[in-house]
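Summary of Year 1 activities. Much of the first year was spent building the evaluation harness for sequence design. The harness presents a backbone, in tokenized form, and records the residue chosen at every position. We chose the following record to illustrate the format because it has been used consistently in internal testing since the harness was completed.
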């Protein structure tokens, strides 16, 4: 394993459920974790919504008679990242702009001000926008 540390930044909340059903960005962060010395995740923009603790979300879409239920479950992926020790952070102003607060987040997700998020960038060898 390398000692290269990466901060992955995701700011696009939706990339097409069917198109990414076999490899979404959060799955990529889990995969990179196995290859690099350290990985952290920062969610900005509409992507902060994947860290909202919502039990009613079901990753299913129907096109007429066709039901696709193999779609990514982003909230489950966030929970898995946290369980595996990957720091997950959200941008507080973006969270508030979408009508949510830190109390709405999945347990373990850090809610940070934009400036605090940016100040952490120098802790990493690379900042990747995924």
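For this record, the design step produced the sequence shown next.
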């Amino acid at each position: 394993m390398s000692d290269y540390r990466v901060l992955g930044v995701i700011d696009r909340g939706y990339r097409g459920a069917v198109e990414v059903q076999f490899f979404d960005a959060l799955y990529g962060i889990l995969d990179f974790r196995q290859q690099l010395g350290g990985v952290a995740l920062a969610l900005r923009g509409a992507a902060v919504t994947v860290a909202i603790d919502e039990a009613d979300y079901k990753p299913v879409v129907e096109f007429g008679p066709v039901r696709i239920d193999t779609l990514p479950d982003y909230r489950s992926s966030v929970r898995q990242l946290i369980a595996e020790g990957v720091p997950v952070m959200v941008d507080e102003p973006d969270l508030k702009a979408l009508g949510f607060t830190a109390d709405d987040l999945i347990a373990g997700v850090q809610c940070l001000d934009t400036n605090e998020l940016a100040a952490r960038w120098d802790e990493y060898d690379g900042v990747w926008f995924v």
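The CA atoms of residues 38 and 116 lie 19 Å apart. Quantitative recovery figures across the full test set are reported in Table 2.
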